[in-house]
Design goal:
199 residues; 5 strands; 44% helix; Frm2/Hbn1; Nitroreductase-like; Nitroreductase
Amino acid sequence: MEKDLFTALRERRSIYGISKESPISDQSIQEIIEETVKHTPSAFNNQTTRVVLLLGEQHNKLWDITTEVLKANVPAEQFSSTQEKMNGFRNGYGTVLFFEDQSVIDSFMKQYPSYQEHFPIWSQQTNGMHQLVIWMALEAEGLGVNLQHYNPLIDERVKAEWKLPESWKLIAQMPFGKPSASAGEKKFNPVQERIKVFK
Protein backbone atom coordinates (compact mmCIF):
# COMPACT_ATOMS: atom_id res chain seq x y z
CA MET A 1 0.00 0.00 0.00
CA GLU A 2 1.53 3.30 -1.09
CA LYS A 3 0.79 6.45 0.92
CA ASP A 4 2.33 9.86 0.74
CA LEU A 5 4.57 10.86 3.65
CA PHE A 6 2.18 13.17 5.49
CA THR A 7 -0.80 10.81 5.12
CA ALA A 8 1.31 8.09 6.72
CA LEU A 9 2.44 10.50 9.45
CA ARG A 10 -1.12 11.63 10.22
CA GLU A 11 -2.38 8.05 10.36
CA ARG A 12 0.40 6.87 12.68
CA ARG A 13 -1.30 6.13 15.98
CA SER A 14 -0.78 4.03 19.10
CA ILE A 15 -2.96 0.97 18.49
CA TYR A 16 -3.23 -1.25 21.56
CA GLY A 17 -5.86 -3.65 20.22
CA ILE A 18 -3.79 -5.93 17.97
CA SER A 19 -4.24 -9.53 16.83
CA LYS A 20 -2.07 -12.46 15.74
CA GLU A 21 -2.70 -11.68 12.10
CA SER A 22 -0.79 -9.64 9.53
CA PRO A 23 -2.06 -8.22 6.23
CA ILE A 24 1.46 -8.55 4.79
CA SER A 25 4.03 -11.35 4.65
CA ASP A 26 6.87 -11.87 7.09
CA GLN A 27 9.23 -11.16 4.21
CA SER A 28 7.58 -7.76 3.64
CA ILE A 29 7.95 -6.91 7.34
CA GLN A 30 11.62 -7.88 7.20
CA GLU A 31 12.13 -5.75 4.08
CA ILE A 32 10.60 -2.71 5.81
CA ILE A 33 13.08 -3.13 8.66
CA GLU A 34 16.04 -3.71 6.35
CA GLU A 35 15.25 -0.63 4.24
CA THR A 36 14.80 1.47 7.38
CA VAL A 37 18.08 0.34 8.96
CA LYS A 38 19.95 0.89 5.71
CA HIS A 39 18.65 4.37 4.90
CA THR A 40 17.81 6.12 8.21
CA PRO A 41 20.47 8.76 9.02
CA SER A 42 22.82 8.77 11.99
CA ALA A 43 25.41 11.20 13.37
CA PHE A 44 28.76 10.91 11.56
CA ASN A 45 27.09 8.03 9.67
CA ASN A 46 28.05 5.86 12.64
CA GLN A 47 25.02 3.54 12.14
CA THR A 48 24.60 2.67 15.83
CA THR A 49 21.02 1.36 15.73
CA ARG A 50 20.41 -2.40 15.90
CA VAL A 51 17.00 -4.00 15.35
CA VAL A 52 15.65 -7.45 16.22
CA LEU A 53 12.40 -8.77 14.69
CA LEU A 54 10.51 -11.36 16.76
CA LEU A 55 7.70 -13.31 15.13
CA GLY A 56 5.54 -16.28 16.16
CA GLU A 57 6.71 -18.09 19.28
CA GLN A 58 9.70 -15.75 19.61
CA HIS A 59 7.28 -12.81 19.94
CA ASN A 60 5.25 -14.74 22.54
CA LYS A 61 8.44 -15.56 24.45
CA LEU A 62 9.35 -11.87 24.76
CA TRP A 63 6.06 -11.00 26.43
CA ASP A 64 6.18 -14.11 28.64
CA ILE A 65 9.64 -12.98 29.82
CA THR A 66 8.41 -9.41 30.36
CA THR A 67 5.40 -10.67 32.33
CA GLU A 68 7.63 -12.84 34.51
CA VAL A 69 10.04 -9.96 35.21
CA LEU A 70 7.24 -7.52 35.99
CA LYS A 71 5.50 -10.00 38.28
CA ALA A 72 8.62 -9.95 40.45
CA ASN A 73 8.64 -6.13 40.50
CA VAL A 74 4.98 -5.05 40.62
CA PRO A 75 2.96 -5.34 43.86
CA ALA A 76 0.57 -8.32 43.66
CA GLU A 77 -2.51 -6.14 44.20
CA GLN A 78 -1.58 -4.04 41.16
CA PHE A 79 -0.53 -6.87 38.87
CA SER A 80 -3.90 -7.62 37.26
CA SER A 81 -3.79 -4.45 35.14
CA THR A 82 -0.15 -5.20 34.23
CA GLN A 83 -1.13 -8.74 33.21
CA GLU A 84 -3.89 -7.33 31.01
CA LYS A 85 -1.38 -5.08 29.24
CA MET A 86 1.02 -7.98 28.74
CA ASN A 87 -1.76 -10.14 27.30
CA GLY A 88 -2.60 -7.32 24.87
CA PHE A 89 0.99 -7.11 23.61
CA ARG A 90 1.31 -10.91 23.44
CA ASN A 91 -1.88 -11.00 21.34
CA GLY A 92 0.04 -9.23 18.59
CA TYR A 93 1.68 -10.74 15.53
CA GLY A 94 5.25 -9.68 16.26
CA THR A 95 7.54 -7.27 18.06
CA VAL A 96 10.38 -5.08 16.86
CA LEU A 97 13.15 -4.53 19.42
CA PHE A 98 15.32 -1.42 19.10
CA PHE A 99 18.88 -1.30 20.43
CA GLU A 100 21.90 0.99 20.31
CA ASP A 101 25.36 -0.55 20.01
CA GLN A 102 27.35 1.04 22.82
CA SER A 103 30.66 -0.25 21.45
CA VAL A 104 30.20 1.86 18.32
CA ILE A 105 29.19 4.89 20.37
CA ASP A 106 32.24 4.44 22.62
CA SER A 107 34.58 4.18 19.65
CA PHE A 108 33.27 7.43 18.17
CA MET A 109 33.56 9.15 21.55
CA LYS A 110 37.25 8.20 21.60
CA GLN A 111 37.77 9.09 17.96
CA TYR A 112 36.14 12.53 18.29
CA PRO A 113 36.78 13.70 21.88
CA SER A 114 35.52 17.22 21.17
CA TYR A 115 32.05 15.75 20.56
CA GLN A 116 32.14 12.85 23.00
CA GLU A 117 29.34 14.08 25.27
CA HIS A 118 27.02 14.36 22.28
CA PHE A 119 27.32 10.86 20.84
CA PRO A 120 24.99 9.18 23.40
CA ILE A 121 22.37 11.89 22.70
CA TRP A 122 22.76 11.56 18.94
CA SER A 123 22.42 7.81 19.26
CA GLN A 124 19.02 8.20 20.96
CA GLN A 125 17.97 10.56 18.20
CA THR A 126 18.84 8.13 15.42
CA ASN A 127 17.05 5.34 17.30
CA GLY A 128 13.94 7.51 17.49
CA MET A 129 14.13 8.09 13.74
CA HIS A 130 14.28 4.33 13.12
CA GLN A 131 11.28 3.84 15.40
CA LEU A 132 9.19 6.43 13.58
CA VAL A 133 10.05 5.17 10.09
CA ILE A 134 9.24 1.54 10.95
CA TRP A 135 6.07 2.59 12.79
CA MET A 136 4.81 4.62 9.83
CA ALA A 137 5.74 1.92 7.32
CA LEU A 138 3.99 -0.86 9.27
CA GLU A 139 0.86 1.23 9.75
CA ALA A 140 0.85 2.18 6.06
CA GLU A 141 0.64 -1.57 5.35
CA GLY A 142 -2.42 -1.98 7.58
CA LEU A 143 -0.78 -3.04 10.85
CA GLY A 144 -1.57 -1.62 14.29
CA VAL A 145 1.51 -0.57 16.24
CA ASN A 146 2.44 0.78 19.67
CA LEU A 147 5.71 1.50 21.46
CA GLN A 148 6.76 0.26 24.89
CA HIS A 149 9.72 0.74 27.25
CA TYR A 150 10.22 -2.13 29.68
CA ASN A 151 13.96 -1.61 29.60
CA PRO A 152 16.12 -1.77 31.65
CA LEU A 153 14.10 -4.35 33.62
CA ILE A 154 14.13 -6.91 30.83
CA ASP A 155 17.48 -6.09 29.20
CA GLU A 156 19.60 -8.94 30.55
CA ARG A 157 16.91 -11.58 30.00
CA VAL A 158 16.41 -10.41 26.41
CA LYS A 159 20.13 -10.45 25.62
CA ALA A 160 20.52 -13.89 27.18
CA GLU A 161 17.47 -15.40 25.45
CA TRP A 162 18.46 -14.30 21.94
CA LYS A 163 22.24 -14.39 22.53
CA LEU A 164 22.68 -10.73 21.62
CA PRO A 165 25.96 -8.85 22.06
CA GLU A 166 26.56 -7.39 25.50
CA SER A 167 27.20 -3.99 23.89
CA TRP A 168 23.62 -3.76 22.57
CA LYS A 169 21.53 -1.51 24.82
CA LEU A 170 17.76 -2.04 24.62
CA ILE A 171 15.88 1.19 23.89
CA ALA A 172 12.27 0.23 23.04
CA GLN A 173 9.85 -2.56 22.17
CA MET A 174 7.30 -2.21 19.34
CA PRO A 175 4.51 -4.83 19.32
CA PHE A 176 2.36 -4.93 16.18
CA GLY A 177 -0.47 -6.89 14.58
CA LYS A 178 -3.65 -6.50 12.60
CA PRO A 179 -5.75 -3.89 14.45
CA SER A 180 -8.59 -5.30 16.54
CA ALA A 181 -9.58 -1.91 18.02
CA SER A 182 -9.38 1.71 16.94
CA ALA A 183 -7.07 4.31 18.42
CA GLY A 184 -8.50 6.78 20.91
CA GLU A 185 -9.00 10.44 20.11
CA LYS A 186 -5.77 12.37 19.72
CA LYS A 187 -5.50 15.90 21.07
CA PHE A 188 -3.11 18.48 19.68
CA ASN A 189 -1.70 21.55 21.33
CA PRO A 190 -1.89 24.57 19.01
CA VAL A 191 0.83 24.28 16.38
CA GLN A 192 1.26 28.07 16.45
CA GLU A 193 2.54 27.80 20.03
CA ARG A 194 5.11 25.18 19.05
CA ILE A 195 6.64 26.72 15.93
CA LYS A 196 8.32 30.05 15.26
CA VAL A 197 9.00 31.28 11.72
CA PHE A 198 11.36 34.14 10.94
CA LYS A 199 11.63 35.68 7.46
